[in-house]
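This section describes the prediction task in plain terms. A model, or a person checking by hand, is given the sequence of a single protein chain and must write out its three-dimensional structure as a string of tokens. No templates, partner chains or ligands are provided. The sample shown here is typical of the held-out split.
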Amino acid sequence: MAGGQAVPPIALLLLSLVSGAAAQAVPNRTTLYLHPTDVTDARALWVNPAGLARMKEASVHLDLTVGDPGAGGRLRQVTAGVNSRGFSFGYQRDLLDGGVRGHIYRLGFAGGEQRLAAGVATALYRGAPGSSGTGWDVGIVYDLTPTLTLGAVAANIGHPVVRDSVLRVVYTPGATLRLFNRRAALSADAGITTNGVAGYAFGVVGGIREGTPLPLRLLARLDTDRSLRRLGFAFGLSVGAQDLLGIVATTPGNVARVDAASLYAVSTRRLTR
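The expected answer:
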């Protein structure tokens, strides 16, 4: 576990849900730049459903992703979602080659008490040939200290089938350390299957112009295989606080080109009694 801290006993219960290796599928773009221990709005539905209960809030999310951005780029994925007090609904539409369309309908719920939050999400796969079934994600987050958050997700419970590939359960423990009065955050997580560690992800987020009408946040993430060889990078910039507009670009491990870029918007409102 990143941060050198022991996982709370409840997190260890998720380990028994892990079985098999992850099959290839089109991931939701949020999972390529966010971490299971550092997301608190409607995007948590795709990354770690426990994050839906980190704050009492209502939020909406829209994401448009273009593959191979430039003259030959084309829209590849659309994501929309809403969260209110831990109840969340999301929709993902994938536009694949050959006119194939994939649809994912996702419903989540989370609850929390003080430093601990837990959540569950279910996904219904439809559209693309060979796609059927329902999968489940279960996640938790735990604030070990005011600056250190631990968490874990068990994804694809139920082994849904996507384009004739069975999505097997993947267990992802992680940690986020917040620095400089929460102006920066360091995150790390690992994807684990029955064959052991499949890969790692490391990320950093930093804020500037905090307290101004238009604060800026920069992010960078590195994904590696189990031997720490580079598999991909993500770089992003966002503007705003309650109403957030951002862009994220991803590249393969050799950083030879940008393979996809996402423009996203998130609007969040804190809820009070």
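For orientation: The radius of gyration is 18 Å.
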